[in-house]
Hints:
With 517 residues, this protein is of the alpha/beta class. The protein has three domains: 2-90, Thiamin diphosphate (ThDP)-binding fold, Pyr/PP domains (Rossmann fold); 113-288, 3-Layer(aba) Sandwich (Rossmann fold), CATH 3.40.50; 301-407 and 444-486, Thiamin diphosphate (ThDP)-binding fold, Pyr/PP domains (Rossmann fold, 3-Layer(aba) Sandwich). The chain has helices at 2-8, 41-45, 61-73, 113-125, 135-139, 143-153, 184-192, 248-264, 270-273, 275-292, 305-315, 328-336, 356-367, 379-384, 388-395, 410-419, 434-439, 447-454, 464-477, and strands spanning 13-19, 51-53, 79-85, 129-133, 157-159, 174-176, 195-199, 223-228, 242-245, 321-324, 345-346, 373-378, 400-405, 457-461, 481-486. The protein binds thiamine diphosphate and magnesium ion. Residues 325-329, 352-355, 378-381, 404, 406, 408-412 line the site of thiamine diphosphate.
Amino acid sequence: MSLATALSDSSAFLAITSNVPTSQMNRAPFQEIYKHNQADFPSVIRPVVKRAFQPTRVDMLPLALRQGFDTMVTGRPGPVNIDVPYNVYQEEDEVELPPASHVFGQHRPGASDADVAKALDMLADAMRPAIFIGHGATLSEAGPEITRLQQTYGIPVITSPNGMGCVPADDPLTLGFIGRNGAYPANQAGRHADVVLTIGTRFDDRSSSSWYPGYSWNFPKTRLIHVDLDPQELGRNYPPTLGIIADAKVFTAQLLNALGLREQRGAASLKKQYSEWRAEVDAWRKEWEAFVRPNFGKLTTPLRPEFVVDALQKVLPDDAILTCDSGVHHNWFMQFWRPKRAQSMLNSWGYSSMGFGVCSVMGAQLAAPERPCISVCGDGGFSMTPYVVATAVEYGLPCIWVVWNNFSWAAIRDIQVGMFGGRELGTAFYPGGHYGQKEGKRYNPDFAAWARACGADGVTITKSEDLAGALQQAIRNKRPCVLDVHVDGEVRPPSTGTWQLPPTPFKEPAFGKPWVA
Ligand SMILES: Cc1ncc(C[n+]2csc(CCOP(=O)(O)OP(=O)(O)O)c2C)c(N)n1
Ligand SMILES: [Mg+2]
């Protein structure tokens, strides 16, 4: 599961696994997978790693380690497995270490001059350009260059959740996420743009309204410049007008350079050329704000989702790291969270693995001991991996879990309710199961009591007024803490695009409507 998550989210992750002693291979000892090949664990995980290595002798280790590390970090990063038989850990040999890797810090391919010139021509011809950035932009640390492109030329930027934080959260040209759970101005800009420059994105179903024309995008009528380090991603879902295999940071710097030279040579200002478009985008942004903002301040029991997002936004310092789990709580954060720094909102995007947000907060805290690290996770996800609290206590990690407790697997319940005329089955938690449902009572373990049993702090929050103070106190305490926040599961995120699990029908957006170019 963690390897699949790492593969789909391009995480350099070395998994050292262990296998049976070589002398026992094919004898079916304890824990050997042997049906088709001896010690065959690498075959089990092959689909979810960039490469699996199985050094069966000590003298094979240096090369396997060197190749494993190189594979993990080169090109598009990803997980690598080194599977080590038990005896290899203990045996000795005279080995020759290969020379230091030539890979680190190098291999950042740029675009050809001809392609940079083509991209520049397309932007110069555009009246309604938009930039769409994803995880590739984050991993290559292209934020400063993309921000310069955004601000110098006045181009709106749409961000996938893993691209958020690369551009300034408070810039009016930072439009947020696109697709069903995106922000209205992002979908409007996506479907009305005449040229889209996309950097390190995949156009998956969630960031494209399941590819239905006019909901988020209008390719191929909209011309597309698609930049990615991974050739497999170019043209997967939309054929680009111009496809460029390059590192996000290197390419953006090349483009900035070319654009700067063009204006130095006396070309008309592109920022001015795009000014009408910016006014349109700004009007959409204001329309959206006027629609959503009133719900942010409502004091309710249980709490309204928007209130929770807003309270975290107000209380958490700019350097906080948020790790999100999978579920409807994540949809609310995709739509409304505005991370202030790159890599400060960590998501399981491609695989959407429940438990990721619950556990990854400890990794974040280990990597950034001085920064507040907060997991926003569902009651369902937290129930899958509650042992994390004990681990955090053991290692003295002051992580905070905001358990978004809506007493259900709400993401799944919402699909059922939407598709089956308001009915649900097995997706909300009641004392006595279905019989309890009739009485209207809800069930969940007492998560705050569990935290205290582990030696952490635990607070239950049922009133809006109590959330900000409890969160501030938890940050001050610098101790692991669970805030069990009771959130209203009947308030659903307003869709601004669409999404479909074929063959079930898709829904029209709750706010705004499609526009086919
Ligand atoms: C490991 C895993 N199992 C199942 C799913 C499918 N799934 C996605 S969201 C969800 C429900 C999540 O419930 P909860 O954690 O309470 O979050 P909520 O949607 O209520 O905010 C499920 C079962 C998944 N993404 N990952
Ligand atoms: Mg839930």
